[in-house]
């Protein structure tokens, strides 16, 4: 079988690999689509100290079950359409037992600490699989992991119908947070500096403000009738976006830091958070409960048309290296998939 290996930082190559052998409480999945994430690009650039070479990247996929040996997963059989939750907790610590395996002290993320999903076949723990309905389009299923991040972050913020939501950053994750928040009944405003992404956000029906505009703050105030926002999500990972979010969150409301900054923010206005009693939340990866909710959304089809519209291009596995070049150089690309089956 073929696997996309990073033998050293900055280098990718398609290699011939051994087929996995299924053990107890394990399954072998044939990967259909695997998605390229911004975090994959950071790993290739050497910006993630947890990732050690040689490594097979990838934590977004959909595929079909080839083999499964599990007494606990009688709900799955060969041929079922599935995704894999890439967060592998120990299963016994307090966080794992409370359904927060993303905070497990010994967590291993596929595509970072252990080999990931950029390959034709993958062996996984059976408890990491979630099933799609038979009629689900695999292109929509391929977006379920980033959709999971949107679900996880919106759930963490406890977004309610009728609330005003502000999102700094109109890339893939910002848009998906916006879609889930809008599905929850919130009114959503995004901000962005990239002209192409501004137009993309508007194409998905969002109000998107140009951060470069001189009257940006006035536009935000007008949209909320001067009351600012109930839930604010910083997705860009840059200090300017964080400062915007501090300016946009109303007293007593919630700010969620989603984007991972390359360095710590220098101008962190703690007094602003204290005196306005801001709920400042962090989010890290996702838990299986959030992916289960995302899979339900895909099975219901409520966002599938939008999910498929987020796919910028699909590359065959033979052009996987070219796909990564596209993802790295095209700032307007949303989701680029690699087809490991075709």
Automatic annotation (TrEMBL):
Record-annotated Enoyl reductase (ER) domain positions: 10-338
UniProt keyword terms in alphabetical order: Metal-binding, Oxidoreductase, Zinc
Single annotated GO MF: metal ion binding
Pfam family, one: ADH_zinc_N
Listed transmembrane segments: none
Identification of the protein by name: Alcohol dehydrogenase catalytic domain-containing protein
């Amino acid at each position: 079988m073929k696997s996309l290996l990073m033998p050293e930082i900055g280098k990718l190559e398609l290699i011939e690999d051994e087929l996995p052998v299924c053990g107890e409480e394990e399954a072998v999945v044939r990967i259909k689509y695997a998605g390229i994430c911004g975090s994959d690009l950071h790993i290739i650039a050497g910006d993630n100290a947890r990732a050690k070479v040689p490594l097979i990247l990838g934590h977004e996929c959909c595929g079909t079950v080839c083999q499964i040996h599990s007494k606990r997963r009688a709900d799955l059989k060969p041929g079922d359409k599935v995704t894999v939750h890439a967060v592998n907790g120990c299963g016994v610590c307090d966080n794992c037992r409370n359904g927060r395996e993303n905070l497990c002290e010994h967590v291993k993320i596929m595509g970072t600490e252990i080999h990931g999903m950029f390959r034709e076949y993958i062996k996984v723990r059976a408890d990491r699989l979630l099933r799609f309905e038979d009629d689900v389009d695999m292109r929509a299923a391929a977006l379920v992991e980033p959709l999971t991040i949107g679900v996880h972050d919106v759930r963490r913020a406890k977004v309610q119908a009728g609330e005003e939501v502000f999102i700094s950053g109109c890339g893939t994750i910002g848009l998906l947070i916006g879609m889930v928040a809008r599905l929850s009944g919130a009114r959503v405003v995004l901000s962005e500096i990239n002209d192409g992404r501004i137009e993309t956000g508007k194409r998905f029906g969002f109000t998107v403000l140009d951060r470069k505009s001189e009257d940006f703050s006035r536009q935000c105030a007008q949209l909320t009738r001067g009351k600012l926002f109930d839930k604010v999500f910083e997705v860009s990972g840059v200090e300017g976006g964080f400062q915007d979010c501090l300016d946009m969150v109303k007293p007593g409301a919630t700010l969620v830091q989603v984007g991972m900054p390359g360095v710590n923010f220098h101008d962190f206005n703690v007094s602003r958070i204290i005196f306005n009693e801001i709920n400042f939340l962090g989010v890290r990866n996702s838990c299986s409960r959030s992916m289960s909710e995302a899979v339900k959304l895909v099975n219901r089809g409520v966002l599938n048309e939008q999910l498929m519209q987020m796919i910028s291009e699909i590359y065959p596995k033979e052009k996987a290296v070219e796909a990564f070049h596209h993802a790295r150089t095209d700032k307007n690309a949303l989701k680029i998939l690699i087809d490991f089956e075709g």
